[in-house]
Design a protein that fits this description.
There is one protein chain. With about 350 residues, the protein is α+β, with helices and mostly antiparallel strands. Helix content is about 60%, strand content about 15%. It folds into five domains: about 1-70, no CATH class; about 75-115, no CATH class; about 120-225, Band 7 domain (Tetrahydropterin Synthase, Chain A), CATH 3.30.479.30; about 235-285; about 295-345. Helix 8 crosses helix 9 (about 295-315). The termini are far apart.
Amino acid sequence: MQNVQYILKINIINTSITKLVNNILFRPNFLLELTSNYGGKMEYFSLFLGNIAWILVIVSLLIVFRKGVFTVPQEKAYLVERFGKYRITLNSGLNFIVPFLDNLVKNPNGKIRAIDLREKQIILAGSDKIELITKDNVEIEAEIGIFYRIEDPAKSEYRVDNIESFIKSTVLGILRDSAGRQSLDEIQRNRKQINDAMVSSLEETTKEWGIIFTRTEITDIDVDSETKEAQRQELTAERRRRAMVLEAEGKKKEIQLEADATLYKAQKDAEAKKIAAEADAFAIQKQGEAIANNGQAAVSFEVLKKQVQAISEVAKSQNSKTVILPTDITKVLGSFEAILSSLKGK
C-alpha cells in the first residue's frame, strides 16, 4: 500500500509540473494572471517561475543544438535518414541537420553507425584459401589479398548487407573462371595479368556497391605433394636438357672455330704461295732480261750459281759427315769467278 501511495504522489507531482510548464510556455499572460489573483504575496513566486521558464528555454536550445549539430571525423561518414528514408551523407567536419526530423543511422547497440572510408584489406588464407582446378586438371589452393575502400557510403550501406562476404564470393567466382582457362604453369607465370584482370572484373561486377578496388594480389599458390614431386622431376629434366644443349652448342662453337682456323690458315698459305710465285716470276723475268742483254755469260753464271748454292746446302746439313765434291770443283769455281769478272766489266 505504501508503494502504491508513493507512486500516486509522484504521478500527481509530474502532472502538476507538466501543466505548469505548458502554461508558462504556451500562455504568456499566465504569470500575470497568477500574480493578480494572489496579489503582492505572489511577487516572489512569479520571479521564481520566470527563472524556471528561462532555464527551460535554455535547456530546450541545448537539446536542439545537440540533436542538430554533429562533428564527423576525417576518416568517417555518417548517414542521415528522415522518416526512415535516406536523406544525406555527412562528411568530415561540422554538419547540421534538422532536429527531431532527421536522425543518424545507428547500430543495434544504439551507437551512431560510422562508415569507415579508409582502405581495407581482406586476406583469404589458411582455412579461407580458395580451392581451384586448372586447365590441366591440377588442384591448387590460392591465397588472395584484396584491397578496397568505400567511395559511396550510401550505396555500400543500403545495397549490400555484408560487403566482405559479397566480395569473397565474387572473387571466388572470378578466380575459378580464370583458373579453368589456364594451366598451372601459366597461372604461376601470369600472376600480374590475373591480378589486373581480377580488379577489372570486380569493378565491373561491384560498381553498384559504392566501393573501389585498389588492387588484388595472389600471394601464394599451393599444390599437393604429388604435383610438387612431378614439378621437381620436370625441373630436373629441364636443367639436364639445358646442360646438354649448352654442351652441344659449345662443341658446335669449337668445331666452327677450328674450321675457321683451318680456312684462315689455308687462305694465308695460298697468299704466301701467291707471293712466292710472284717473286719467282719476277726473278725469271729479270733472268730473261739478263740473258737477253749478256748472252751466254749470263746463262753460265746462273747455272754455276745454282751449283755453288747446292754445294753450300749439302755442306750445311747436320746429317752429312762426308761431303763429296765433283773433281772439277776448282774448275767450276774458277769459271764462276771469270764469268763474274766479265759481267762486272760489262
